[in-house]
Amino acid sequence: MEYRIALAQVAPHLGDVAANLELASDRVRAAAGEGAQLTLLPELALTGYLLQDLVPDVAMRADDPRLLAIGSETPGMLVAIGFVEETDEHRYCNSVALLRDGELVGLHRKVYLPTYGLFDEGRFTRAGDRIRTVTVGEPIGRIGLSVCEDFWHASLPMLQALDGASLLVNVAAGPSRAPGSSAGLQAIEGWHKMQDTYALLGTVALAFCNRVGNEEGLTFWGGSRIVAADGSTVAQAPLWEEALVVGTLETDDLRMQRYGLPLLADERIELVRRELDRIISERAGLDGTPPEG
Amino acid sequence: MAATALPPLPAIEPAQAIEVIVGFIRAQMAQTGFSRLVVGLSGGVDSATVAFLAARALGPDDLLAVRMPYRTSSDSSETDALRVVEALGCRTERVEITSMVEPMLALVTGGDEASLNVRRGNVMARQRMIVLYDRSAAFDALVIGTSNKTEALLGYGTLHGDMAAGLAPIGDLYKTQLRAVAGELGVPQEILDKPPSADLWPGQTDEDELGRSYDLLDRALFALVDRRWSADRCVSAGLDRALVEWVAGRVARMEFKRQPPPVAKLSLRTPGFDHLYPRRRPGSRR
After folding, report:
1. Is there a contact between A179 and B266 if contact means CB atoms under 8 Å apart?
2. Among 3.40.190.290, 3.40.50.1100, 3.40.50.2300, 3.40.50.620, what is the CATH number of B14-202?
3. Which residues of A149-165 are buried (b: 16+ CB within 10 A; e: fewer)?
4. Under an 8 A CB cutoff, do B268 and A218 touch?
5. Which of B268, B269, B274 is most worth mutating to test chain A (most A CB atoms within 10 A of its CB)?
6. Which of A103, A242, A291, B29 is the 20 to 30 A CA-CA neighbour of B68?
7. How far apart are CA B43 and CA B122, in angstroms?
8. Using CA atoms, how far apart are residues A27 and A20, in angstroms rounded to an integer?
9. Tell me, what's the ipTM?
10. Which residues pair with A86 in a beta bridge?
11. Which CATH number fits domain A2-283: 1.20.58.220, 3.30.10.20, 2.30.110.10, 3.60.110.10?
């Protein structure tokens, strides 16, 4: 069975939720016109990225009607979109919602908030503490959601693959570390290599939607893409500019890939867990070894 | 949490605030390697307060107060500025800016009377900045700023004019809080009593120009900024909606005056993004 994914590589308006809601609806309509069953919009697509103290002004609950309405005019359309979530306990999280027919079917709170180099996310938002997958039914199956930096920790996509994901979805707001030099392009290449590797090792399809545009001097690089479970590129958006790119995945490809390369089935998760338990215990000094240093 | 009464401005502990600011000035001097300060003295309460603080931190010999009248400046401004100089025994110079400002305005013309007033005010403020920085080089000193928190938040100042300085000792004191500090320092009563004015044209007062009293402005700013209240909550606590929206809009619109300009990031280390250091650090002393 085939299904089509649309990557809406947009440049959200910083701090302007109303304008971004309109932008999102417009892109989902265009994606529906292209026959997509799943549309991705980037991390913080409803708010823009460099929010700083705007965070509480633009935050919304995960059941906010404005959020749930996105894509609801297209029956069956799945939409993954980034926003600032305010939880019942007033934690402000960098979250991605998975929506369908006016309902929230999945939610992931960014686990890894980069707070180094040019990043200061941990100053303004709180980290999520769950890594899960969500069943969305045929043809896609099961989706593992994540946000940008989450992908720089291999444990997250591997856990999602082991948890049954047939498709990894990563939404991003990746500013280029050096858009004026080869170092910047090298970093982008690193992102793409990493995605190919996750698809290959997890024998799982992958869709990545990164934003473009410029905020306060930071330039976001785009380069959104869809990768099949064998690590091959199915669709590739341009760098730096807005685009709506659509690609088709065939579920049978995943099926046959996993027959030919049964890496997931062979994974020794009990062994991994035992070794992790040991490492955790040693790091905490619970094994009786004296503290380092 | 019902929105009840508007939070009052927290009463400043003047003696404590003075101790903190004097310590701040001394630390800045030590860290930059300067031992002298230059202040533009207008005769108003802000610059008088800064002059008193600077003199207390360094002693009057290391403070140069520069008076920079324009042809329309009121005589009382000069009189009040001299009261400060006399009270402190600091150094002083008088540099009239009229003959610097007029040629500029004569050379570049256009606009109606209202826009000319704004232009003239900006040119005057920037001319004074030029004089202050010129005198600071001659006196081997840092320029100490006189902008207060109310002005900074409302952007009621001229970028690269009166907002230009090497350090900002009263930048976190609202105008109405600053008076308590000024009183404790012994700023002359005549200065404390007169209506605040930028004295950019005859008869100008801040409160006329802003259209609101500092008391109301500071209460709105304190609720919106310090307490992070929403505009709606300020209104239900008794503030006028038009005032609250004007203040909130102005704080947002004037953000650019409070920050260095955005840099187009191109490289791996960009000042402001990933080249981040304390302003004063080992090696930064001159």
Report:
1. yes
2. 3.40.50.620
3. bbbeeeebbbbbbbeeb
4. no
5. B268
6. B29
7. 19
8. 10
9. 0.84
10. A92
11. 3.60.110.10
Q: Are strands A243-250 and A2-9 parallel, antiparallel or unpaired?
A: antiparallel
Stretches in chain A below the pLDDT threshold 70: 290-293
Please indicate whether, in this complex, the C-beta atoms of A176 and B265 are within 8 angstroms of each other.
Answer: yes
Burial of A91 (0-12, 13-18, 19+ CB in 10 A): middle
At residue B1, the pLDDT reads 47
Based on its alpha-carbon atoms, the radius of gyration of chain A, rounded to whole angstroms, reads 19
CA-nearest of B270, B213, B199 to B41 is B199
* DSSP character at residue B67: E
Backbone angles phi, psi at A28, to 5 degrees: -65, -40
Per-residue pLDDT of B167-219, as tens digits, reads 999 999 999 999 999 999 999 999 999 999 988 888 889 888 888 999 999 99
Query: Is some CB atom of chain A closer than 8 A to the CB atom of B1?
Result: no
Q: Look at A217 and B273 and tell me if their CB atoms are within 8 Å.
A: yes
Of the partner residues B263, B268, B272, the one whose CB lies closest to the CB of residue A178? B268
The residues with which A220 forms a beta bridge, in sequence order, are A175, A213
Residue type (1 letter), B256:
F
B259 touches chain A (CB under 8 A): no
- Return the SS3 of B194: coil
pLDDT, one tens digit per residue, over A162-187 is 999 999 999 999 999 888 888 888 88
**Rounded CA gap, A111 and A114, in Å?**
10
The distance of B210 to chain A (nearest Cα, Å) reads 26
Amino acid letter for position A253: D
Instruction: Tell me how long chain B is.
Output: 286
| Collapsed DSSP state (helix, strand, coil) of residue B92 | strand
* CB-based contact, B189 to chain A, within 8 Å: no
Which of the residues in chain B have pLDDT under 70? 1-4
